[in-house]
Amino acid sequence: MVLDFVEMSRPDEIESLRIPLFMLLEGSVDSSLRIAIGLIYRTVLLFVSPPERLLPATRTGAVMFCIPHGTPSNISNILPIVEDASSRGGLGGILMGGFGSRHEVAFGTCTPTSLDRLVAGVPAGKRVRCFWRAIRTLCRVRKLSRRQFPQIARSLNGKFSFLLNQISLSLLVREVIGDLLELWRPSAVITSSDFWPFEYEVVSAAKKNAILTLVVQHGIVDPFWWPFCADRLLLWGRPFEEQMVALGAPRDRLSLVGMPATDQIFRSRGADEDGWEEETVDSCLIISQTNAAGVYPDAFKKYYAFLKETIGHLSNVEWRIKLHPVEDGKFYLNLQREVGAELKILPKGTKLDAAVRDSRISLTVFSTAGLEVMIMQRPLIVLNVSPHLAEFAWWPSQGGGVYASSPSQLRTTIRQLLSDRKAAGRHVGRQNEFIASCFENPGYAAKAVMDHVVSLTPSANWNQNTSPCQ
Could you please report the per-residue DSSP string of 127-140? Predict the structure, then answer.
């Protein structure tokens, strides 16, 4: 439906809104007054921030990176590739997404150019034109949806501030990204997404300038992943390629490279296959994604019941919660009051590998962090609370962890894994076989990405003696 809607509109105006429209249809956009006010404030900032006409310079003819969001998972997905590019003398500029932050994060000797800084490069007169164009585009979207797409029209109710923000961002980035590409003149652009307006406009502009564009897989394959804008999608391994082909993606636009975020984990794997050290306390790590409860309310009601009926019966277990970056923990505070047991919500800055290694067992519903748990050789249990979500977390069907389809099954599995070291060892052994079948270039995926880039860009600037971002 969204693709039809985009096709019937002026595609050049709203093609970057495909994913925001999809999210509206899915019901995953918060319509609360607080969020609406925040979005209006952010939109205003886009247009009134002080102009900075001179865009930052960087090495030309090298690889440009676009990091859509400054979250730990996005950074860990791209950082190993940045480091490999830098070691080859092929690191160009870095763009960092996110609202209202300068992201003073250094990648070696290179400080990223923030989204704020990029948009500040749009002259005042062009900002005014972009503002009125954004209003006209929003009105056209509303009119067309009311006339021919009532389901989209209903999804827009109370959420116009969200869509106006996305339209505004798209138009402003489109206005200035061509100037940045002309200044940086990259040989390739690597990003972890081309879904949202910011990164979509970067990829689209690069393609129009005949610059190679590559998206590194970030997260589970979702139906909206095809069609994608970039020249190629770099996937973790064969099973994910088959999923994309099933969605309609041609194999010649898919490349298998591995998962750069796990390079260090693969290289540091030990020989211990039973999943924990002797002194580790009986503990379960819940890798949470309750931020998806708005999209899958029935599944997360069942998830709540699973935990409620499990935690109260396992009083000897220490429960730890690793929140998603956008979660606030209220879900678990309510659960804690009901079960009368302490749930340890880990600080937001806690790294996944540290949380996993400090726990004996990890639980999730469909987070791809479950794959990293298995790479770290820790037992994984997938809570099967919805047939639809099980399609995303399909790994137990092929030996990647086990499903728990009821609270009693979850309790039984946890007890067995905690009390029987040999059972835990067999469990991890099956996971190891599964992981070996899923990931290309384990431990060296970032190198594989850059090797691929080199093979596709023989004329790139690989000057080892030049410092990046200069």
Answer: HHHHHHHHHHHHHH
265-310 residue pLDDT tens: 999 876 444 445 554 678 999 999 998 888 888 999 999 999 999 9
The dihedrals phi and psi of 385, each to the nearest 5 degrees, come to -100, -5
CA–CA separation, 269 vs 236, rounded Å? 18
Give the pair of three-digit tokens for residue 445: 């995926």
Q: Is 361 exposed, middle or buried (0-12, 13-18, 19+ CB in 10 A)?
A: buried
Q: What six digits make up the tokens of 112? A: 């990223």
In a domain, 223, yes or no: no
Average pLDDT over residues 210-236: 94
Determine the pLDDT at residue 249.
97
Which pair of tokens denotes residue 273?
């296959």
CA quadruple 413, 416, 419, 420: dihedral, nearest 10 = -130
CATH number of the domain where residue 302 is located: 3.40.50.2000
Number of domains in the chain: 1
The residue written with tokens 């939109």 in the block is 43
Alpha-carbon span 24 to 418, nearest angstrom = 42
Paired with 131 in beta bridges are: none
pTM for this model (two decimals): 0.90
In the predicted structure, residue 109 carries a pLDDT above the cut 80: no
Domain membership flag for residue 343: yes
| Residue 235: φ, ψ to 5° | -105, 160
Single-letter amino acid, residue 285 = L
Pairwise CA distance, residues 326 & 13, whole Å: 29
Residue 444 CA: distances (Å) to CA of 67, 92, 333, 449: 20, 21, 40, 9
Look up residue 158 and give its two tokens.
């109370």
Contact call for residues 33 and 158 (beta carbons, < 8 A): no
Q: Going edge to edge, which strands form the sheet with 91-96? A: 113-114, 91-96, 63-67, 188-191, 212-216, 232-235, 254-256
Percent of the chain past pLDDT 90, that is, above it, reads 59
Stretch 256-268: mean pLDDT: 94
Domain assignment of residue 262, yes or no: no
User: pLDDT > 70: what percent of the chain?
Assistant: 90
| 107 pLDDT above the threshold of 80 | no
Residues 6+ apart with CB under 8 A from 106: none
Give me the domain span that covers residue 333: 267-438
Decide if 451 is inside a domain.
no
- Confidence band of 6 (pLDDT split at 50, 70, 90): low
